[in-house]
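Try this one yourself first.
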């Protein structure tokens, strides 16, 4: 063979392999098409790998919805602890069908079961109930949670909710209306601040403006005869990454067809079965969330006039987002906190605990389906939920690190990673970047333009469209949607696909993959890389042009004036307004705390001392909490604080230390009583908890020295002198 020119054998080997790969790929697409048709024929299609039994059918509720609550049946050998809070996984109804939260063993459901929690799943049917609204779904979810809590009377905490993507904002709305129902809420890839982002990234947030608002959503609903096709949402997601959609994904199947088929089919079973929404549901979502961004601003009200205020939620809120997520980037997952709170102390005063973590690379779907993410992030969050549930109010970042030989007290760590919570401030969120006042003004202009265009459409065009639309036409349009047609056309219903199965069987019997060093294979891989690079450049050019057009169009002072906005905004227009009743409750709590500095017994003294000593560190990890759990378990049941009581104790003592640190510390001896043995035992407990994570920092060491003197039954003169000034 001449250098750079493949010989005949290499060419023959390459083309034989290429032909065989093409047949095998066609067969995988044929299987995908058949699965698509089989799933479409089912009443309740899903991709759960776990056995489930129906608990509540939402279609039978007073206000029927197409949602259902099922209990996940633990696989053989799985032990469920009745004292652990049950976990409810809620899947997103954002175009695709249900089951992504339990698609495989290494999943959110799998991690919950492995940790000994009873597990439930909230899914949905392909078609909505007539007249079903977003509020109806939220109220149904509240009923589901009440039912789960009722089934677990021995659980020490309220049900834990894991909500994926769209389900996140829906659960947050429900929790804001019914804050007494839920335990910790984990939001996985869930957008709550829809305008947020940074220039040069996050192009999906510009779509509403580029389409002139939500009038096209209304048109799609009218053409669908009152039904919005979720396949349109899937198309939007796919348009974000042209290289992956139009080349990388199919090429990866072709290049690895001998091993990739099963994984490809598993994913496509979920991805390829779009569900339907009522046109009213989708219009509400588009108007109030995607374009209006009204949720975090407290501008949404229920049908009975109650404002949906996310500050009502008292359960810990865990936000899991990723820099690799182009659908819900960290800004859209986190900036709602800045809409609710202007100062750090407001979070504490409101009694809200917010925890976030940011993955560096994983994409949107990987947050739910990646086995590595499931076994690390989801597994650690599930195992740390008790710690999360008792954390005092404030803002924290969850840091998950590998353990090694230098990690102290590894026997106190669950699994392969150390889970740590670091105190953060609102400035940490602001430092991620985001909109300035001018950017928010542009999005506010989009919202006004959308209202105008929607009004014009409904007045001038909608009557004609609705008169022409009918059920058969709408069904035909859905059948011919590209996201459905590309699946169905490769199924066995297509006569041209009839020979493929037999051909594929023949190919598998005589499969001859080419050698890795084949020069034509290297040329193929080089061509693939060039195509990917070209599509990525096109993607970047399109996104840059979209952003430029958006910024210039909606940044126009003339357009802003025409829609009734002032030309020079001085502050963010979307901040939530003051709530006088909430401020009165905060003032009342502060007044009550003034009388609690010297109230309590040894448990209060221990909690206060621990908070005081650890406050300079600004962090908590699972080791100290593991010791607390061991000590608690060793006490007789009659003398043991419940998890709810312990949570209230920690919260109160933390607020007291924040309110007046010096006064809170000086009062510790009065909480301990005069029993020397009890003081000594309490101090030993304090030491056990403190040393769990290793050596103390200098400032914490000084604080411990002071606390030790306060625990001394003799009470040194210096301490008594201090107390005389109280």
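Now uncover the answer:
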């Amino acid at each position: 063979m001449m250098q750079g020119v493949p010989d005949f054998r290499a060419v023959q080997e390459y083309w034989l392999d290429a032909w065989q790969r093409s047949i095998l790929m066609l067969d995988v697409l044929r299987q995908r098409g058949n699965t698509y048709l089989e799933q479409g024929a089912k009443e309740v299609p899903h991709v759960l790998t776990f056995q489930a039994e129906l608990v509540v059918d939402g279609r039978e509720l007073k206000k029927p919805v197409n949602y259902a609550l099922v209990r996940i049946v633990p696989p053989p050998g799985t032990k469920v602890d009745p004292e652990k809070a049950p976990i409810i996984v809620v899947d997103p109804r954002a175009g695709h069908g249900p089951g992504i939260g339990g698609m495989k063993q290494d999943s959110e459901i799998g991690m919950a079961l492995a940790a000994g929690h009873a597990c439930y799943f909230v899914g949905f049917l392909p078609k909505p109930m007539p007249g079903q609204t977003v509020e109806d779904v939220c109220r149904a979810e509240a009923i589901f949670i009440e039912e789960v809590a009722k089934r677990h009377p021995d659980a020490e905490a309220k049900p834990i909710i894991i909500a994926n993507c769209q389900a996140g904002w829906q659960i947050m709305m429900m929790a804001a209306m019914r804050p007494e129902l839920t335990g910790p809420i984990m939001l996985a890839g869930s957008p709550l601040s829809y305008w947020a982002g940074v220039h040069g990234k996050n192009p999906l947030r510009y779509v509403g403006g580029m389409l002139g608002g939500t009038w096209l959503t209304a048109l799609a609903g009218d053409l669908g005869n009152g039904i919005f096709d979720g396949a349109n949402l899937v198309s939007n997601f796919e348009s974000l990454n042209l290289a992956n959609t139009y080349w990388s994904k199919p090429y990866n199947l072709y290049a690895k067809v001998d091993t990739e088929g099963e994984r490809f089919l598993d994913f496509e079973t979920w991805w390829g079965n779009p569900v339907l929404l009522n046109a009213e549901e989708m219009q509400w979502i588009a108007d109030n969330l995607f374009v209006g961004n009204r949720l975090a601003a407290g501008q949404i009200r229920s049908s009975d006039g109650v404002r949906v205020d996310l500050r009502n939620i008292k359960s810990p809120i865990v936000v899991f987002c990723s820099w690799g997520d182009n659908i819900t980037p960290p800004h859209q997952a986190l900036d709602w906190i800045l809409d609710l709170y202007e100062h750090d102390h407001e979070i504490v005063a409101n009694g809200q605990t917010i925890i976030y973590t940011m993955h560096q690379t994983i994409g949107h779907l990987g947050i739910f389906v990646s086995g590595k993410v499931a076994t690390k992030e989801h597994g650690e969050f599930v195992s740390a939920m008790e710690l999360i549930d008792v954390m005092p109010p404030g803002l924290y970042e969850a840091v998950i690190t590998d353990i090694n030989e230098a990690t102290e007290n590894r026997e106190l760590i669950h699994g392969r990673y150390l889970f740590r919570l670091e105190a953060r401030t609102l400035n940490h969120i602001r430092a991620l970047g985001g909109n300035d006042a001018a950017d928010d003004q542009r999005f506010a202009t989009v919202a006004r333009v959308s209202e105008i265009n929607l009004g014009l459409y409904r007045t001038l065009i909608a009557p004609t469209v609705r008169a022409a639309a009918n059920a058969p036409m709408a069904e035909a349009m859905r059948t011919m949607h590209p996201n459905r047609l590309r699946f169905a056309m490769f199924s066995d219903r297509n006569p041209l696909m009839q020979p493929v199965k037999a051909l594929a069987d023949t190919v598998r019997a005589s499969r001859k993959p080419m050698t890795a060093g084949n020069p034509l294979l290297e040329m193929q891989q080089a061509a693939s890389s060039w195509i990917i690079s070209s599509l990525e450049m096109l993607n970047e050019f399109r996104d840059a042009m979209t952003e430029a057009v958006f910024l210039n169009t909606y940044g126009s002072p003339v357009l802003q004036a025409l829609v009734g906005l002032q030309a020079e905004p001085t502050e963010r227009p979307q901040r939530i307004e003051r709530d006088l009743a909430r401020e009165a409750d905060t003032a009342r709590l502060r007044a009550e705390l003034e009388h609690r500095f010297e109230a309590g017994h040894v448990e209060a003294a221990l909690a206060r001392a621990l908070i005081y000593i650890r406050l300079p560190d600004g962090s908590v990890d699972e080791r100290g909490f593991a010791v607390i759990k061991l000590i608690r378990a060793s006490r007789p049941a009659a003398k043991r604080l419940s998890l709810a009581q312990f949570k209230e104790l920690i919260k109160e003592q933390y607020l007291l230390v924040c309110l007046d640190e010096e006064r809170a510390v000086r009062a510790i001896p009065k909480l301990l009583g005069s029993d020397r043995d009890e003081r000594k035992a309490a101090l030993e407990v304090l030491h056990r908890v403190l040393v769990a994570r290793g050596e103390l920092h200098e400032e914490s060491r000084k604080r411990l020295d002071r606390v030790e003197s306060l625990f001394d039954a003799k009470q040194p003169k210096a301490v008594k002198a201090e107390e005389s000034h109280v």
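Discussion: Residues 713-726 have pLDDT under 50 and may be disordered. Residues 519-554 form the longest helix (36 residues).
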